[in-house]
């Protein structure tokens, strides 16, 4: 009997530790990027967070620091949110 092929693999979850939500309870979406100012996720990512596999959560988590860094000037200076 062949072994099932995993749909994804993440070294962050090899010991069964679930990746927690990055939510900071600052729920405001940047209209330019579609990312939350608090956690950096999109509304779609937030909506499916509890139903996606840990490896997909790990992929999103890896992107969040760059997203939040890009959002930082708009979060500090809200007048910059709609500028190109």
Question: Could you tell me the radius of gyration in angstroms?
Answer: 16 Å
- Report helical residue fraction: 25-40%
Main sheet?
none
Average of the residue pLDDT scores: 81
Flag low-confidence runs: none
Oligomer: single chain
Apparent shape? elongated
Helix and strand sequence:
HH
Distance between the termini: 56 Å
Structural class estimated from helices and strands: mainly alpha
Q: Number of helical segments? A: 2
- Range of strand content: under 5%
Q: How many DSSP E strands?
A: 0
Structural key phrases:
mainly alpha; 84 residues; 2 helices
What does this structure look like?
This protein is mostly helical and 84 residues long. It has a domain at 28-75. It has two helices and no strands. It has helices at residues 43-48, 54-76. The longest helix is centred in the last third of the chain and has 23 residues, at 54-76.
Short description:
By secondary structure, this protein is mainly alpha-helical. The mean pLDDT is about 80.
Topology, please?
Elements: H1 43-48, H2 54-76
């Amino acid at each position: 009997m062949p072994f099932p092929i995993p749909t994804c693999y993440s070294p962050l979850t090899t010991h069964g530790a679930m990746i927690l939500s990055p939510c900071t309870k600052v729920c405001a979406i940047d209209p330019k990027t579609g990312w939350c100012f608090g956690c950096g996720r999109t509304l779609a990512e937030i909506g499916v967070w509890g139903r996606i596999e840990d490896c997909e959560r790990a992929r999103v988590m890896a992107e969040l620091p760059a997203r939040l860094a890009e959002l930082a000037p708009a979060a500090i200076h809200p007048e910059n949110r709609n500028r190109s």
